[in-house]
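Deliverable D4.2, example record:
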Amino acid sequence: MNKQLEHLCKAIEKHRDLMWDAEKYIWEHPELGFKEWQTHAYLKENMEKLGYTLKEAGDIPGFTAEIDTGKEGPTVVIIAEMDSIVNFSHPACNKETGAVHACCHHAQCAALLGAAAALKEEGALDGLCGKIRIMFEPAEELLELNYREGLRQKGVIKYFGGKVEFMRRGFFDDADLCVMLHSGGGNNSFSLSPGQNGCIIKQIAYRGKTSHAAAPFHAVNALYAANVGMTAANAVRETFYDYDHIRFHPIFTGKIGTVNNIPDLVTMESYVRGASLDAMKKANRRINRALSGAAASMGATVHLSDRPGYAPVNNDKNMYALSKEVMVSLVGEENVKETTIWGSGSTDMGDISCVFPAIHPHGSGFTGSGHGDDCYMTDKESGLTLAGKFYLGMCEALLRDNAREAKYILENKNTLYGSIKEYLESLDQLIFDVDAVEYTDDGAVLHF
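Output generated by the structure prediction step:
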């Protein structure tokens, strides 16, 4: 560990109380995506106490703050996520909303707040150049899709994920490299992987015709049509290439009806996940064909609504290598775990990696399964202090020596898109709304 990183590590250790208090408060006040107003207010108050000037999103939660070394150089964005998940079976959940930080995001926020405090300590920026942009971001978890679609229709948001919405709003303008550490299991350790799936969001509405359940010959059963649709989608799973890591996991939403009536409306939602944007699009077309064909076979109709979810995460190879160096300096090589396994989950950090050299590894400090009812922080030194040290270590490694490492990474980057504008234009092509089955007067069936 070099002297500057050692200085930064000592600086964050002074702020354990700040991190501990923040972790406790946010854990006790879990909020779902685009609703994190208490978390926003708490973090805003503490960041302003540290002397930061904030750029707030305004009509949605979240903000950035920037610290300038005073020397010309690149801008590194360090990110934490503010939202929770829903898990009504978790003992600590909000009993009304089911919200709980079994996603570990509260720890990210507390660790990043500690890192922000450390960067204000005397000598913290010695030997560094460029700028560090601290970002507290809303709505990483893709939940409450109807609520987010409502926000979209009102013009509040255009995209369902916080990072990509922040991209649209200019919060990543003039950025160069992006770093985010997700909390994870174990103690005093880190883990690295090549990347993970992206996803397309799907909402599906089957419509039939209701009748008394004792006279089903007068009806078109929307529930049966939906069941046939899931069976048809299951039948095409074997046509997906293993290396594309396709996942399709629909659930029923809303009320189906009463037992003495044939249901005439059944709604579903799902993601189509995959390891590349191209694979996601191809799988989605097959699934849409299966869903619409099922509706046609039952005499029902189906409305298919697709929205951009998240792009796959592709960790920049040189950011990966530098991250490993920082991790080894903090915990030793034996405590840095590397895997070649591609992750099947999705995060909007994938959108960032389409435009910027980015890294999205995992830290430690938690027990239980992610999103499970047994997920708790049990080691605050790992989950908070060590996580904060990683953020500081990455900033120091990227911006020291006239940003030598950052410049090398930028010169050798291999992102899919050359600009935010180009990427967002490609996302808009995924927006899709269609009544996928039509019936002509002569009884013919037309479907997607």
